[in-house]
Amino acid sequence: MKCGHVFSLAALAVGLCIFTSTVFAAEVNVYSYRKPKLIDPMFAVFTQKTGIKVNSVYAKKGMLERLKQEGSNSPADLVFTVDIGRLTDIQNAGLTQAVQSDELERDIPAQFREPNGHWFGLTSRARIIVTSVDRVGADDLKTYEDLTDVRWKGRICTRSGKHPYMVALTASMIAHYGTEKAKDWLTGLKANLARKPQGNDRAQVKAIKEGVCDVAVINHYYMAKMLKDPKQVSWAKAVRVTFPNQKDFRLLHRQGTHMNISGVALTKHAPNRDAAIALMEFLASA
Q1: Spatial CB neighbours of 226, under 8 Å, sequence gap ≥ 6
Q2: Rounded to an integer, what distance in angstroms lies between the CA atom of residue 46 and that of residue 43?
Q3: Which of 108, 149, 184, 260 is deepest in the core (most CB within 10 A)?
Q4: Three-state DSSP class for 275?
Q5: Residue 83's closest CA among 200, 172, 159, 198?
Q6: For residue 38, what pLDDT band results from cuts at 50, 70 and 90?
Q7: Where are the domains of the chain?
Q8: Is 264 helix (H, G, I), strand (E, B) or coil?
Q9: Which of these, 123, 122, 141, lies nearest to 131 by C-alpha position?
């Protein structure tokens, strides 16, 4: 086990880890759903600038349950995750604490942070619509509501509705239109599916390229990723991007394009509170 990447209370207690001679002024422990390659470089810069060591634990699932089980003995200072739903779940479980920071309030707009400071958004991602450049006109589909039109019956692909990206989009429909209208929207979308929901966002674009469907909903950054991948660039070039609900959205009280976030929260029992807040402020300013 490399102590630079994974920390363990048991190992620390019995001295099983062999440390280098490097002396750190402080440390901060992070539980994260993010991919290591995306955030480890930022942690390295933070350590270089501040002398504060960052210990990271990466997981694909189960973070909420782990924090609950560890309780007041948890070594975690920060939770760093994608999706506003995960952040609010952790907050609602009573596992976060409020942070008052002039730097965080300055660097993060109010709409991207919890009002009382329980979590702060760091990056955002748009849930966009992509359509076949060959089989769908540029002006044929402009809103999320259009996805329920009968003209798209058997022409839409999507990943599982239980995935956090789709759950968040549905939650935004509920927030803007109410439960009943959101339910009708989901029913209409389901009726227009070309196949059972499956795969990730890129798989939906691939399906459009292969003629399985003509329309899909994905996160915007996957387009850039596919355009850089020699094996997937043809998928990306087969679709047209639409940022939904743009025209007169304020006048019509529509929501604009749905945006989700990745963010960070200070845990309720953070053993290194000051160092953790310093890392939060650094990430917000990056």
Answers
A1: 202, 205, 232, 233, 235, 236
A2: 5
A3: 260
A4: helix
A5: 172
A6: confident
A7: 9-118+267-285, 124-259
A8: strand
A9: 141
Fold of 124-259: D-Maltodextrin-Binding Protein; domain 2 (3.40.190)
Enter the pTM of the model.
Answer: 0.82
Same fold, 9-118+267-285 and 124-259: yes
Q: How many CB atoms lie within 10 A of CB 259?
A: 17
Phi-psi region of 83 (alpha: psi -120 to 50; beta: other; left: phi over 0): left
Degrees (nearest 5) of the Cα angle 215, 221, 226?
Answer: 75
pLDDT in tens, 224-255: 999 999 999 999 999 999 999 987 655 445 57
CATH architecture of 9-118+267-285: 3-Layer(aba) Sandwich (3.40)
Yes or no: say if 261 and 124 are a contact pair by the CB < 8 Å rule.
yes
The single-letter DSSP state of residue 110 is: G
Q: What pLDDT does 248 receive?
A: 61
Residue 54 backbone phi and psi in degrees, to 5: -110, 120
Mean pLDDT of 8-32: 55
Q: How many residues make up the chain in this entry?
A: 286
Give residue 51's region: left, alpha or beta (phi > 0; psi -120 to 50).
left
Question: 24: pLDDT confidence band, cut at 50, 70 and 90?
Answer: low
